[in-house]
Amino acid sequence: MISSERLLQIAFWARDLSPAEVERAARGVTEKTWEAGAYIIHRGDKLDAWSGVVSGLLKMSTGSISGKAVTLAGLPTGAWFGEGSLIKNEARMYDIVALRDSRIASMNRATFVWLYENSVAFNRFLVRQFNERLGQFIALVEHDRILDATARVARSIAWLFNPVLNPLAGSSLKISQEELGLLAGVSRQATNRALKDLEGEGLIAQSNDGVAPRDLAALSRYGE
């Protein structure tokens, strides 16, 4: 278990809970560090925990029988995931892989269910989370079928800074071109070209270790 103060530091949604709800939630949360490249969750796993990224960067992905890998989402610091599988009590439908050394918070199923059944604020958060994630996955269909490399990179950046799913992203994100390419599903070379194009259009600013969006709306619509 962690302290209430620690929960409020690592879980943005906890700030809308009552003090009693925060205390109850904190008792059901633990933290663990994973090395880069580690599979935190395998597709088909039946886990009794809801997870959040305390620090680091994760990739949510799946694969076909033919071996084609599809990245579903990037999960930066502050992102929480897996609520759908817990509510439906089903096996996970995707892999979660650490792209860099990452620390993960896990809330046990009993605590999650208690919040789900007793906290209005928590349920409001879940509705917003489900709605935004649905929009993300619908966009992914277009992303995979018709967008070029620059548009894929642009929209991947936009989702990493989505204020509902990733409210702790801030104004910039430390991410390598290789990591961004893995999330966008394009090569490092194509990512490099795309970033230069986006910066030339004034939509992002690059630094030695990351990227900062200048126009999230335009990035999220890029390629239309």
Write a structural description.
By secondary structure, the protein is an alpha+beta fold. The chain has 2 domains: 116 residues, Jelly Rolls, CATH 2.60.120.10; 75 residues, Arc Repressor Mutant, subunit A, CATH 1.10.10.10. It is built from 9 helices and 11 strands. Strands 1-8-3-6 form a 4-stranded antiparallel beta sheet. It has a 4-stranded antiparallel beta sheet with strand order 2-7-4-5. Strand 4 and strand 5 form a beta hairpin. The longest helix has 27 residues. The termini are far apart.
Which features would summarize this protein structure in a list?
about 220 residues, alpha+beta, Jelly Rolls, Arc Repressor Mutant, subunit A, 2 domains, four-stranded antiparallel sheet, about 25% strand, globular
Shape: globular
Strand content: 15-25%
**What is the string of SSEs from the N terminus onward?**
HHEEEEEEHEEHHHEHHEEH
Q: For the record, what is the CATH homologous superfamily label of the largest domain?
A: Jelly Rolls
Low-confidence stretches: none
Radius of gyration: 17 Å
Helix vs. strand class: alpha+beta
In brief:
The protein has 224 residues and is of the alpha+beta class.
Write the layout of secondary structure elements.
Layout: H1 4-10, H2 19-26, E1 29-34, E2 39-41, E3 49-55, E4 57-63, E5 69-76, E6 80-81, H3 83-88, E7 95-98, E8 102-108, H4 109-118, H5 120-146, H6 149-160, E9 173-174, H7 177-184, H8 188-200, E10 204-207, E11 210-213, H9 216-221
Antiparallel strand pairs: 1-8, 2-7, 3-6, 3-8, 4-5, 4-7, 9-11, 10-11
Helix pairs in contact: 1-2, 6-7, 6-8, 7-8
